[in-house]
Amino acid sequence: MSDDPLYRDSSIEGSSPDAATVEGAVEKGDRSQFAMGTAVPSEMVVDIEKMAERNARTASLWTDAYRQLRRKPIFIISAVLIIIMIVMAAFPILFTRIDPRACNLSDSLLAPSSEHWFGTDLQGCDYYSRTIHGARVSITIGLVVTLFATSIALVGGSTAGYYGGRVDTVIARLTDIMFVIPFILGGIVILSLFPTRGVAQVSLVLIILGWATMLRLVRSSVMSVKSSDYVDAARAMGGSNFRIITKHVLPNSLAPVIVYATITVGAVISAEAALSFLGVGLQLPAISWGLMIATAQHRILTSPHLLLFPGLFLSVTVFSFILMGDALRDALDPKLR
Amino acid sequence: MVKNSLDNADSLGGQALDPAAPLLEVENLHVEFRIEDGVVKAVNGLSYTLHEHETLAILGESGSGKSVSAQAVMGILDTPPGFVTAGQANFRGVDLLKVSEEVMAKQVRGQKVAMIFQDALTALNPVFTVGWQIAEMLRKHRGMSKKEAKEQAIELMERVKIPDARDRVNAYPHEFSGGMRQRAMIAMALSLDPDVLIADEPTTALDVTVQAQIMELLHDLQQETGMGLILITHDLGVVAEVCDRVVVMYAGEIMEDGDITDVYHHPAHPYTLGLMDSIPRSDKHTDRLSPIQGAPPDLLNIPSGCPFHPRCPFVRPRCSEDSPVLSDIGRDGHESGCFYWEEVERDR
Asked: pLDDT at position A127, please?
């Protein structure tokens, strides 16, 4: 291995941080740190070797796309916003220590102030805290629905697209049937069947209404990849159908799916808000942007902040996912470059 | 000890391989495509025999059924619309056309019969490195570890003379030149030590100098391994250089077959003659090439009788009525499908 030019290069690169660590430790005169310093470099060299190996050839679709994305302000802005929203959903406590359910009726409908940044709602709850906590529902539903819908689409779409024939007919007609159902109307009808509606029920309905479009996309993408020579070649080399689908067909048909899935997260979040606004989505006492907007509608003129803040957060989140999808499409679809 | 029939190297799907039988014997193969406009008869009674160490050329224009016949033998015909309607493809006595898809995938393709394609750029998966794709075959069929398989892939790449194989093992197909890609494809095809290699126009997408290198490589590898090589091509030059026997196809039928030198020196079919006259020769001065008149037949409506008769300079009334049968004309299995082959030979 050591006579390999690739590895030799990397060990030279590896020597500089390696030496610096040791020197640093010596300067401090701390023996225990020095001992650690000697232990660390060997791992570091391995790490750097791996990196060098990866960097030696970095022209795959994904590395290429990443390299392009890094320079795109749209991608960076949307990525930062999405990360903030996800952190907000996972750890709202990082943003506010105020309990969104600790309400004081005497503080009802206060305008934004230094004490209550976003003001308070009718019940006198801190609106900033409620807005922050509302992220969890939106992000969870957005990600869960997209994840499940994409999984259904990947399995169904690749089966239909790859095998064709009768299987394809059945699956494709099934998606056609799903397309007949208008989104909002379907949502209202199905959701009204549930006595209580929480995140699970709303997610389920959005998955039911959302998989068909995604499946069509996967199917058409798989069909175009299926006729590639490398799929024939893989078959000629003895690849099984499962292997060909997972190793050759899906990786090559994934780019448009990823783009669409990203945009779908945004669309699902706004769909949840729409259903909650219409009163068939989540129910109080759940904290959700859609519900907050719904309750705000009667007081738009007297307390506009009730509409402004959840509306703003909702728009920014949906907007970020759509922007991200756009950036990904530009990077992943060479034809659009 | 009872062995799983799938693991047994001497049998295919329960049928014992006969080591004395010819490596690959295709008999009376018929393939058709059922499309909306009708039935396209792509291959009509193709027969050939391939032995170890032998190179067989299947020669013909585009649409003559060469590639389709190979796909049928490999069992990778797109069905529907393609169907094998008759014939056998006996590998060591076992008919591959009757073997189950599972056995074909697990035991035959890649291991017994491998195939390389015309355009190696499109035949390699763009999202994986070349080395990964070669190693994948070994990991799957030979159960090698990732590391072993990669080392073996490097070895294979060296064997097909890819320079700096150790560096290039991590390169993606589009980072390779055309010739290198075809070499990588060959490395992949050879990875499981097949007994038969079918090369479907392996040099068509390459420029002339690289063509010669690839043919030489294939020839050397065949000498080394003793595999049978089927070369599907429309290039008479390529055929002359490396092949032992040649099958000339037209409209899915055999026009002529035989030993390569014999067919070249004494073509016994007007079509073969036409093919030879339509390439420039260095030993004869000609101002103009004489192409074969007319166009290849519409496979939906193959001419009656001899399919070549509308374009044939030797045509007689009988040609459009009776279908000629491939008949032995002496000389080491040289066969011609022309009623008037003696006349054709005399004309030469």
From this structure: 77
CB B150 within 8 A of CB B169: yes
Task: State the SS3 of chain B.
Answer: CCCCCCCCCCEECCEECCCCCCCEEEEEEEEEEEECCEEEEEEEEEEEEECCCCEEEEECCCCCCHHHHHHHHHCCCCCCCEEEEEEEEEECCEECCCCCHHHHHHHHECCCEEEECCCHHHHCCCCCCHHHHHHHHHHHHHCCCHHHHHHHHHHHHHHCCCCCHHHHCCCCHHHCCHHHHHHHHHHHHHCCCCCEEEEECCCCCCCHHHHHHHHHHHHHHHHHHCCEEEEEECCHHHHHHHCCEEEEEECCEEEEEEEHHHHHHCCCCHHHHHHHHCCCCCCCCCCCCCCCCCCCCCCCCCCCCCCCHHHCCCCCHHHHCCCCCCEECCCCCCEECCCCHHHHHHHC
Considering the entire predicted model, what is its pTM? 0.71
Tokens of residue B154, six digits = 């490097």
Selecting from A5, A60, A243 the residue whose C-beta is nearest the C-beta of B172 gives A60
Nearest to B123 among A61, A233, A238 (CB): A233
Cα dihedral A236→A246→A50→A42 (10° resolution): -120
Nearest partner of B108 among B94, B87, B124, B118, judged by Cα: B94
B125/A230 Cβ within 8 A: yes
User: What's the pLDDT tens digit per position in A259-289?
Assistant: 888 888 888 888 888 888 888 877 777 788 8
**Per-residue pLDDT tens digits for B172-230:** 888 888 888 888 888 888 888 888 999 888 887 778 788 888 888 888 888 888 888 99
Residues of A in contact with B141 (CB under 8 A): 238
- Chain B closest-CA separation from residue A143 CA (Å): 26
Neighbours of A34 (CB within 10 A): 16
pLDDT: which is higher, B280 or A91: A91
Q: B32 phi and psi, to 5 degrees?
A: -135, 155
Q: Which amino acid appears at position A254 of this protein? A: L
**B167, A53: Cβ pair inside 8 Å?**
no
A285 at the B interface (CB within 8 A)? Answer: no
Query: What count of other Cβ atoms lies within 10 Å of the Cβ of residue A97?
Result: 8
Q: A246 to chain B: which residues are within 8 Å by CB? A: none
Closest chain B residue to A254, measured at CA: B127
Which chain B residues contact residue A251 at CB under 8 A? 125, 127-128
Half-sphere exposure of B270 (CA within 13 A, CB side): 19
Helix intervals (H) in chain A: 5-28, 31-56, 61-70, 73-90, 127-163, 165-180, 183-191, 199-226, 229-236, 241-243, 250-277, 289-296, 305-332
- Note the pLDDT of residue A147: 93
Identify which of A230, A237, A238 has the shortest CB distance to residue B122: A230
What residue has token string 């102030």?
A113
> What does the DSSP 8-state code read for residue A93?
G
Q: Which residues of B touch A6 (CB under 8 A)?
A: 166-167
Taking contacts as CB-CB distances below 8 angstroms, the residues of chain B near A165 are 80
Give the confidence band of B40 by pLDDT, cuts at 50, 70, 90.
Answer: confident
